[in-house]
Each structure stands twice: as C-alpha cells, then as structure tokens.
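Practice record 12: protein with adenosine-5'-triphosphate.
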Amino acid sequence: MRVHIVSPSADRTRNWQQALTHAVRIYEVTTSSGGLASAEIGLRATPPDVLVLQPTHEADIDLLQSLAQDHPNMDCVLLGTQPDPAQLMGLMRAGVREVLPEVPDGVQLSMAVERLARRRGGSLRHTKRGKVLCFMSCKGGSGATFLAANLAVALAEQSNARVALIDLNLQFGDALLFISSQTGPSNVAEVALNSERLDKDLLRSSLLEVSPGLFALAAPNDPASGTDVLPEQVQTLLQVARSDFDYVVVDIGRTLNGVALQALDMADQVYAVLQLTLPFIRDGKRLQELFRSLDYPPSKIHWVLNRFEKGGQLTLSDLRQSLKTPELITIPNHYGVVADSVNQGVPVSKVAPRSPVTKALADMADSIRNPDVTEATTSGIKGLLSKVFDKRGIKVA
Ligand SMILES: Nc1ncnc2c1ncn2[C@@H]1O[C@H](COP(=O)(O)OP(=O)(O)OP(=O)(O)O)[C@@H](O)[C@H]1O
Ligand SMILES: [Mg+2]
C-alpha cells in the first residue's frame, strides 16, 4: 500500500516514515515537506492509497478537495487540525477518513493508517520481524555493555529464541569479550562494507555462535575502520538481522552520531543505563530531552538503574521524580560476581547462576518476552532532585 506524507516538518516526517516502515503492514512510504501545492504534480501523477496531510494553509484543504474529485479512491488522514462539524462533511467527501487534532507521534499515526489499511485490505508482512533492543550509556562506565551482552544471554537461555548481539560501539566496542573468549569470523565494519549484498546467509556467516541460539557480531578491532560505517549500512544490517532473529540486542555505547541515531530510530525499545549519582542523572535528563526532540514515544524508552544499592544519599523515588517516570529497571550492585564474569569473559549466569544480578537480568528478559504495558503516572510531588535540577535550570544545549 502506498502512503504519502505531506507536512511542513522534515523531522516529524522522517519519524512518521520510520514508524510506518516498522508497522505490521507493508507500506511504501513517500514524503514531501512543505505545502500540499508543492506535492500536487507528483500526487496527481501517482496518487497514493493514503495521503497523510498536515495542512499549512486553508488552500491545502481546497486543493485536497480538488485532488479527491480526481482520485476518489485516495483516503486521507488529516493531522493537527480540528475542523468544526460543518467542515467535517466536506472533508469526508474529500476522502478524509481520520482526523487527528493533535500532531501525532509515530505510534499514533501508524495506528490511524493501520485502521485505513485494514479496511483496504493492505497486505501484512510475512517476513519475521524480531525486536531491536538498543542499549546506551547515559555516561561512560554505566554498565550498558555488561547489561546488553548478559541480557542477550538471558533471552537466549530462557526460550528457543534466536538472539543476535550487535556491537555498534564502533571505536571501542568490547561487548563480545563480556561473554566469550572467542573471536568472531567478521565484525560490524566488514559487514557494513558488504551491506549491498547483505542477506541472511551472509549475516549468519559473519556471526560467532556464542551458545545455542545466541550469535554475536563484534565491533571492529581497529577504531579507524569504525569511522567508515554509514547509517544506511547500519539500517540494512539491522533490517536483515531482525528478519532472521527474534531479538537483536544492540550496544550503541555513548556516542551520538548518525549510526547511533539510525539504530535508535529503528529500535523497538531503548534501554538507557545510568547509576544513582548526580552526574549520571544529569546526563540521563539530557538524553531524555534528546529522545523527546526525536519524538520517541515514552513507551519506547526504559531507564535502567545499574549497580543499585539501598541506603545511598539519593533514592529510587528521587530518580523517578527527576526523570518523571514511574518505571525503573533496577540491577543490583554486585562487584565481585560481575568482575569475575567480566574478567573471565563468561556470562554472569554461568559464573553465578544465583546471584541477584543474574536474577535481575532474567527478570528483565522475562518482561521483554512478556511485555506488560505500565501506564505512566508522573503527576505530583516534586522531589529533592527535581528541585535541584529546576533550580540549576539544567537543560540540554
Ligand atoms: N551490576 C553491576 N555490579 C557491579 N559491577 C558492575 C555492574 N555492572 C557493571 N559493572 C562493572 O562496571 C564496569 C563497566 O561496565 P561496562 O563496560 O558495561 O560499562 P559501559 O557503560 O558499557 O562503559 P563504556 O561507556 O566505556 O562503554 C564493568 O567492567 C563491571 O566491572
Ligand atoms: Mg560499553
């Protein structure tokens, strides 16, 4: 099914396109940023099945009506306008089937397009679509790599799921070393170079089988070759990976470049790892602003508090209030066990199957396999930390 998006905001258009590319149905999505007039010639030549329009002028509505007369099969989703009942009749005659008064996020738009697609009988994806889970550090040393690698282990251990661990920390990636002493047959930079001919077979032959069901693609050994990797190559890599694996766990480290943003855009879930100290929380808030500016829905972002110990100066509730999120995943601090695992290059579940860290990772894997939607209830009391942040006016530059 063909969908064309017309909106004045190039960033939003990119996000919506991204969301529709991930949807359950197959959409061919084209976009134009600007008014409807600038897209008119193309739309008349090849009218889409669904036009998504965020009007910028009254004239856009007149033009929509004229387009609809010539292309009565074209449905329209109208964004960011609240027509009165009298206008609504005219709009319905112009093919408007959905009106979203607020400018929607990607998920809301996908749902609206999905309602239309269902009626039109748009074809469902037949290819397997695994979940992309991205881990990133709010600040260096948070434990993001340790958690990504060991979560991948836990996901593969808990079920028959096929799991791929991909190290996108292109300069200093070390994820594979956390769970294996072997070297893989290839690495991300080499696979990226071959992205034009990348398919499941080539990807499989590039991965190291770490344990049954768990495969890993290491970061390049040489930091220089990592700098040549392009976002579009990463897009292909993740697309092929998720068509072959149930879970694709990605360690993106802490550098925010085009490659990292590509992975974040494609992620079904993002796990931002931090610890319970002010510098981590400050960077966590900055990251949160970034996610907001990228229009990621809050349900996509998870905050993982690593190395948690009770009795510190700052509490879980301080952190919840500061990040304005009720949902926190906590992983306890257990230095000895984790150091043994990291030093031996053996998953923590093998080194210490009963450790609280192993248990917390198993719980995390379990909740990923059986997602349970928790409603955000963030209103209310301002805690110590939020007051500190408010006073200091900490914002992302
Ligand atoms: N839950 C934990 N308990 C105790 N120690 C931990 C825990 N998680 C991680 N660590 C320790 O923290 C160290 C740093 O972890 P890791 O390399 O995963 O951080 P990172 O966020 O990936 O860092 P970088 O930003 O350098 O990539 C590990 O070597 C390990 O010793
Ligand atoms: Mg790391």
